[in-house]
Amino acid sequence: MRNRALLALITVVATIFVSGVVGLIVSGRQNSTAAQSPVGSPAPTADPATATPASPPTMELRTEPDGSAQEVADGYLRAWSRGDFEAMREMVDDPPDDFVARHRDFEDALLSASVKLIEEAAVTTGDDTAEVPFGQERAEPGHGTWRVRSTLRLAVRDLSWKVIWSPAVLHPDLAEGGQIVRATGPAPTRGPVTREGRPFPRDSWADEYLTRLSAAMTGGAAVPTEGTDAAWAIQLQNPGEPARTLIEHRPRPPKQVRTTIEWAVQAAAARALDEVGHPAALVAVRPSTGEILAVADRLGGPTPRGAFEHKYAPGSTFKTITAAALLSEGVTPDTPVECPAAYQIPGHRSFPNYKNEDHGTVTLRRAYALSCNTSFVRLTIERLNADALVEQARRFGFGVPIDTGAGGACGGIDHPENPDALAADSFGQGKVEATPLCMALVAAAVSSGEWHPPRLLLDAAELAAAQPETVTLRQDVADGLRAMMSAAVTEGTASGRGLPEGTAGKTGTAEDWQGGQDHGWFIGYRGDLAFAVFIQNGGTGAGAAVPIAARFLRAL
């Protein structure tokens, strides 16, 4: 029994072993048959219970960048040529926030008429880097073609070629924080300029004269006094370094008309009138030549160029001419004369002093310094006649045609028809009249001993109109007038008014024929400079005109 049981166990084990071997053989045959089946034969059906899941397909990985450095550089430069800075920005790796603004500022500074960008062949500098040299050819108005060589540096970023931007792309020497700027200078002045070739001072109060002078020089067509073609320079400005000029434009100076006016004298004259509340003018001339050194004219009104052409009663400044006539007749500065409060011409009218002042007996020098009307009326009636006074006035330019190049007139005096008219003319009332230019020339003649016709053009040959001849004063007359004008400043009506030492002059207060407030005058000289100050309806010469002259002279 025991042997039968053992035999049965061995039989079962053998059966299981043989079944397993047979199963493996059958399985192997099936797999081999499936593998050898031709294209189109039905595949054997797998047992769902024993099927193995299929593996996913394998993806191929890209390792080369899109395009090339050359293609990106070409696109970048073409976008630059058409000014498409936004498109350029898209081709830059990590562009600065102000990328577009920097390019616009660069182009605005250059103002190129045209831009040509010339690309060269790309140069490999590493596994993922390259450089593309390129040139800029820019047409710069006033300069010509400006050529600049720069370099685009590129690198692969995320399998795409990108421009690695820096300011050196714009210009090879431009550093971070630097800029290219346009520096402009003043345009060359056209038309009239000062003696030094400079534009006239700002707010010079001479515009009307410059316009007329310009028109005279161009056949009647006014030329602007400011140029339009300014000088400029393109500069490279890097932090911590001095600005460096890359290119510049220096326009050829246009034809200029140089005047006799000196810049500093004109500026001083204009500033002396700045705070004057009444219409006023100041004319300065060079006594030795008659050259006009300054004309500041704020007279305004319907008649322009009032300082050169509009005539006013000169008041007591005309006593200078009357004194010249008296000195020519043998009177000296030391001759005693009466200066009563009023003087009655025998058989004619009475003439008062200003404020009816009575100074008793004084010298002619003192009478001039104190501006005694009565002294000059009496001496004129007793020592002169109408012809003598008119002739003396003519020696100082009255009634003489003049032309500065910008127009001009001196003074006028009608032949006095009776003693009353002669007496009124003797102290600058009556029918005598003068321009501020004319009275500046009177002071100049005393200073130099010669009356010169006025000149506003430095080159006298440019003045077509014939000028009157120079008139030489008698030596004793010139010396006597200088002594009297000096006394008027040191001890007379102009004393204590702030005039610089060495100034000589004469005040004048003239009645307005139209019934307005008096006009104020002061004429004088200091060194080789003579002047006339006129205040229309501004009060007395001493109170209104002398302070202006003092400001003017102290500024020189």
UniProtKB/TrEMBL annotation:
<feature type="region of interest" description="Disordered">
    <location>
        <begin position="492"/>
        <end position="513"/>
    </location>
</feature>
<dbReference type="InterPro" id="IPR007887">
    <property type="entry name" value="MecA_N"/>
</dbReference>
<feature type="domain" description="Penicillin-binding protein transpeptidase">
    <location>
        <begin position="281"/>
        <end position="553"/>
    </location>
</feature>
<dbReference type="InterPro" id="IPR050515">
    <property type="entry name" value="Beta-lactam/transpept"/>
</dbReference>
<protein>
    <submittedName>
        <fullName>Penicillin-binding transpeptidase domain-containing protein</fullName>
    </submittedName>
</protein>
<feature type="compositionally biased region" description="Low complexity">
    <location>
        <begin position="42"/>
        <end position="53"/>
    </location>
</feature>
<dbReference type="Pfam" id="PF00905">
    <property type="entry name" value="Transpeptidase"/>
</dbReference>
<dbReference type="InterPro" id="IPR032710">
    <property type="entry name" value="NTF2-like_dom_sf"/>
</dbReference>
<dbReference type="InterPro" id="IPR001460">
    <property type="entry name" value="PCN-bd_Tpept"/>
</dbReference>
<dbReference type="Pfam" id="PF05223">
    <property type="entry name" value="MecA_N"/>
</dbReference>
<feature type="region of interest" description="Disordered">
    <location>
        <begin position="181"/>
        <end position="201"/>
    </location>
</feature>
<dbReference type="InterPro" id="IPR012338">
    <property type="entry name" value="Beta-lactam/transpept-like"/>
</dbReference>
<feature type="region of interest" description="Disordered">
    <location>
        <begin position="33"/>
        <end position="68"/>
    </location>
</feature>
<feature type="domain" description="NTF2-like N-terminal transpeptidase">
    <location>
        <begin position="68"/>
        <end position="177"/>
    </location>
</feature>
